[in-house]
Every structure is written in structure tokens, then in C-alpha cells.
Queue: 2 jobs
Job 1
Amino acid sequence: MNDRPSLQQVEEVRASAARELDAAPDIQSLDEWRIAYLGRGGRLTRILRELGGLPPDERRAVGSAANSAKSALEEDLEVRRRELHRAQASANLLAERIDVTLPGRPTPHGRLHPITETIREITEVFVSMGFGVEEGPEVELDRYNFDMLNIPKEHPARDMWDTLWIDHVDEDGSRPMLLRTHTSPMQARIMETTEPPVRVVVPGKAFRYEATDATHEWHFHQVEGLAVDEGITFSDLKGALFEFARRIFGEERRVRFRCDFFPFVEPGVDMAIDCFKCGGSGCRICGGAGWIEILGAGMVHPSVLEGVGYDSQKYTGFAFGMGVERICMLRRGIDDIRLFYSNDLRFLRQF
Ligand code: FA5
């Protein structure tokens, strides 16, 4: 390139620049190309700079060819830049392509625990009969769990509910707190703060210090029911519980009431339904009895009503308490209560 600039030289530079531009593989290499031909020390720039040494005629001809080569190359550069941009963009699109026709990854669905589901079904039945729903404390005072339910300190009935006591000692040396052994304390709590009429169901946990087996857990759920008003009779108790049994266990269910003893009701009963599996002839589910006990109930004892300040001459009421796990076991044919709380997903996924 130390030769004098000539038309031939301009032509050569232009041809080689065009070739290299065509071959430029990517946008980054365009910059190198521009510096090599059009930059301050670039080949075409040098030709233009050296024009001054040429005789006027030649200078005009070579100058004009070099200038038009310069603008042609600048245009080519822009064209090539756009081309490479487009190619790069499609390459990016291709690399980032997602197949929208692929099926999505399934998200695991949670579901309600069968006991939660059973509690909801039971409460819905009573809500449709006009009952409200309330919840109460699991850590309870023995006053509510026992005393106000007509079960005084040394009463032998306290043996019926083997109790988990809380490690809290009062000044007089007594331990007044426990894990409630049933949901019945809520009867007293609700009546204490409400004037009749009362119609309420109370679902919740109960705890008993007892050995577990296929039908006994040390913690389980109950649904308590309470209705107090003027003129409530045992027929109302039977009617409400009969309707409940039909709705939960089937239209054709028969119901049996037998005398039972609970200190906070008089009279007290246990309620059984005829076995929905065998229809009463006796099978494995009902243990051959043809009947299945599902709850304890009765007319609220006058002493309990008086204890919360109700006039027992004016008001009467019924109460019941049912075991939720047992009801769920019966409905779904589950033969061991401990399965509910073993956290075995194979068991839980069935529901
Ligand atoms: C009671 O707990 C009374 N409070 C029920 C009651 C309420 C009677 C209102 C009268 C008026 P019982 O101890 O029988 O009663 O328990 C009621 C139900 O809870 C039982 O029928 C049973 O279904 C369930 N249950 C009791 N102990 C356990 C246990 N360890 N594991 C699972 N379920 C239990």
C-alpha cells in the first residue's frame, strides 16, 4: 500500500472489503471490518489521505472512485449489520423456544383430611336445622370439664374420663387445668354467656389418658350439640338425632335409644343406628349386634341449668356428644382409628 493510490487499488480494496463483509460471521466482527477499511488507519481511508500526492487529473478520478467506494461500503456495512441482527434474533428465538403443546406438569392437589370432611358434613346437617357452630378451648379448667357438668371433685364419674392434667399448680395446691376430655364443657361456657334460646353444635378435639387400640385414640374429635328453650322435650332430641342419622348414614336408617348414664343429663341415653352394612342381622362392622352406638345424649340436667343461672322450671334442653372418628370409620369402612393420625399418605390419598 505504499504505492501511489490508483483506480485499480481502489477496486481491489473495495472487492476485498465486500468479500470480507460477506464472510463476517457475527456483529462483533463487523467492528473489526470497519476499523480495517473505514477506520482512521483503514485501507480506504489511507487511499483518500494520500490523494494529495497525485497529479490533478488522476486525483479527481481516483478520489471520486474512492469516495463512492467509501459510501458504497458504508451502505453495505449497514445492510450486513441488519442481516446479522436478524439472523442473531432468529437464532435466539430458536434457542429459547418452548413447546407450548407439551402438557403442563401436574401440581399435587391437597385435600381435606377425612376427619375435617366428616366434621363439616355433620355440622352442615345441624346448621340446616337452625343450629349455630362454635368452638372452644382445648386446654380447659376442671370447673367447666367437670364441676359445672354436675361432676364434683370426688365424684366417681370422673373416672369415666381419664384425664391429662396440665402441670400448673394453684396457690391452694390444686391443679385446675387439663386437656378437655370431651366437648361438653362448652355447654356450660355457652350457657353462661347466652340467654336462651340456645341451639349450637361444637366440633373440636378431646383428649384422654388411655391406651390406644383399633377404636380408641388418646386424642380424637367430638361434636357436641346443645338446644335449650322453653318447652323442649325428649321428642325434640329424638327428632333432631334421627334426622341427623338419616342424613349421614342413609334415608332408611332406624335409630335405637337406650338408657345410659352421664351426670350432666337426666334422662341419659346412648343412641345406636341399625347397621348399614348388614341391616341388623349382625356382621363384622357391628360386631354381630346389628346396632352401632354413635353417641351419648340426654336432657340437660336441671342442676347444670341452675349452675349457669337458667331457671330450670322455665327452660329445658337436650344435649348430645358424638365421636367423629367412629362415625367416619363406620361410613368409610375403616377398621383402625389409629390410621387417621399415622400420617400415612397411602391411607389419606384414598379419600
Ligand atoms: C361423652 O364424652 C359425653 N360428653 C357425651 C355426652 C354429651 C353425653 C352430651 C350426654 C350429653 P363418651 O365418653 O361416651 O361421652 O364419648 C362420646 C363419644 O366419643 C363416644 O361415643 C365415642 O364415639 C367417642 N369416643 C370416646 N372415647 C374415645 C376414644 N378414646 N377414641 C375415639 N373416640 C372416642
Note: The two ends are 88 Å apart (CA to CA).
Job 2
Amino acid sequence: MGTVHLIDHPLVQHKLTLMRRKEASTNSFRRLANEMSTLMTYEVLRDIPMQEIEIETPLERTTGKVIDGKKVVFVSILRAGTGILDGMLTVVPGARVGHIGLYRDPRTLGAVEYYFKMPGDLRERDVVVVDPMLATGNSAVAAVERLKECGPKSIKFVCLLACPEGVAALHKAHPDVPIYTAAVDRELDEQGYILPGLGDAGDRIFGTK
Ligand code: URA
């Protein structure tokens, strides 16, 4: 059975509501997407492995905790994933970044891969896949499937907004991948848009419509 972590912090929910409004300008939509993803990263990485190291303060020797292992990898699903990547890098500036290019076939709504570039040593790293919207789930399922071929230590999926259909699809294909989202909306429409949703995240982030 898969897990959904609903990030219901008031700051995250407030920003999501502002993003949903059709009046939000490209500038404010993009800024809010950045801010939301920064805040959500705290929850996403809450259980990241730590190790204790010895340090010296100006007064004495002591121990402190630091993040263990190789740097985490944020994998952005192009193009809309880019819109939440910077926010996550704000709090984990040393993270590595991978990109997966998938486009949605307008007829089948299925995911077609056109780009794949990852850090080399994925077997020793934890991966966080980022895409603002978990709609049909086709891109998420395809991205995780492709990443599993590289054998990372773990995979998580982060989006700003999900719907029951997308959650079910990702859980069915990859029950081991936890989903982190600020909301699970009512439903998907026949064009593959989340309702009530926030529209086309890519177009709103980049101002292409
Ligand atoms: N992708 C989007 O950007 N918005 C949706 O509602 C669904 C998929």
C-alpha cells in the first residue's frame, strides 16, 4: 500500500490557494511555486539519514548531526518540474540534479521520453522526483520506472497538487514510492486537468499562455 504525505502546514496551504486563483500573474505564480516547494522540502527530507560527527566549538569538543551519505538527487520532470526545483535547491544547495524529459501524447495522454540525464552514481543516492502536478500519473509512473533501472537507494515523489486518479496510478505501479503533496483535489477531467486544480502549471510558471 503506498503512502501519501499531505503537507497541510498553514503557510503551504495559504500559498496554494493564492496560486489557484486565475488572477495570479506569471510573476506571482512562479514565486509562489518556488516558496511552496521550499517549505515542502522540509517535510520531504524529514526522515533523511543522519550521522553523528565530532566537532569542536570555540569552547569544547562535542558531537553534532549531519546528513549522511552522498548528496540527494532532485529529478525534475521537464518542463514544469523546473518551476519547483529552485525552491528545493534553496534549502539543499548541494543537491545533485537530474532531468527527465517526457511529453504528454495529446491523444493517449501517455508519457513519451525525449531526454534523460542523471548523476553517475545513482545507486548510492536517494532520489526525489519533482513535478508540480500529479494528474493522470502517466509521467510520474514512466519517470519512476526509468529511474528504477538506475537502482537508486530510494525514490520519493513530490508535487504541489495531486488528484485521486494520479495517486492511484502511481501507487498501483510503484507502491514503494511515497507521494508528498499539498492537496489531493476532487478529480481529473477528460482533458487530463485536475479539478478544481490550478490550470496548466507549466504555462502558468513560464507565462506561455
Ligand atoms: N498538468 C497541469 O499542469 N495541470 C493539470 O491540471 C494537470 C496536468
Note: The mean pLDDT is 95.
